[in-house]
Amino acid sequence: MTAAPADFARARSEFLSIDTPRVEDGAAIWRIARDSEVLDLNSSYSYLLWCRDFAATSAVARGEDGEPIAFVTGYIRPDRPGTLVVWQVAVDQAHRGKGLAATLLDALTARVAADQGLSCVETTITPDNTASDRLFTSYAQRHDVPLEQEVLFDGGLFPEGTHLPEVLYRIGPFAG
Fold this sequence. Notes:
Elements: H1 5-13, E1 17-19, H2 26-36, H3 44-53, E2 59-62, E3 68-77, E4 80-91, H4 100-116, E5 120-125, H5 130-142, E6 147-153, E7 166-171
Parallel strand pairs: 4-5
Antiparallel strand pairs: 1-2, 2-3, 3-4, 5-7, 6-7
Helix pairs in contact: 2-3, 4-5
């Protein structure tokens, strides 16, 4: 299912801007991740570092007060410079269901493509995360590119022993 143009217009009306995260955004991004109740929560320190070291491959949506209301974090794979790995996507509870995650993902990948080129997007999703499955499946459909899925890390590799497998979603290649 793809997002309709009206969904994007509605999402845009809910925030003031999309831009790169700043170090000062780290705490708000950490809170959004924590409150999502589905993301693996990293330390608050890691979100500060992410905003410093990976701002060029990440994006935040800001509300009217300038505070982050959603984010996408990503990085370029060192062994595949045209591949953007999307690490986390989260939207504040008050802004969910309006197409904001898709708008952010589209804006981030357009920026990365313009700044450094983009041939592929990768992410990992656990089989029970239907929201992320829908987000990345619709992204591939909107951009008319193939989506491949394969188990990247079997659940048995995780030390806690109860982790679901992480399924790699590889989207692309993109033309041009």
